[in-house]
Amino acid sequence: MTLCHNSYKIENTFSNVFRNSESKDNFREISPLIDTKNLNVSRDKELIHIMQIISMVTIRNVVEKFANDISKEEAMGGL
């Protein structure tokens, strides 16, 4: 249960990274550098959602790796 609570707190903190005005300014600066040809996005809001999903999956894997003391290979899921 502690892992779930800590994971939620970490994910919630990182999801806020995409919500404040400074982050929006940073997004406007880096978004033109992202090649979206192979992504099904038509607006910046959709790209932000993709970035949030990628961030949350990454954070969850990092938390799980350290909480369960698993190897890097196990955490990567055989990639």
Task: Give the secondary structure arrangement, pairings included.
Elements: H1 2-15, H2 21-30, H3 44-68, H4 72-75
Helix pairs in contact: 1-3
Main structural class: mainly alpha
Biggest sheet, open or closed, and with what strands and sense?
Answer: none
Count of β-strands = 0
Report the average pLDDT across residues.
76
Helix content: 55-70%
Distance N terminus to C terminus? 28 Å
How many DSSP H or I helices? Answer: 4
What percent strand? under 5%
Radius of gyration: 15 Å
Point out poorly predicted stretches. Answer: none
What general outline do the C-alpha atoms trace?
globular
N to C succession of SSEs = HHHH
How would you characterize the overall build of this protein?
The protein is mainly α and 79 residues long. It has helices at residues 2-15, 21-30, 44-68, 72-75. Helix 1 packs antiparallel against helix 3 (44-68). The longest helix has 25 residues, at 44-68. It is globular, with a radius of gyration of 15 Å.
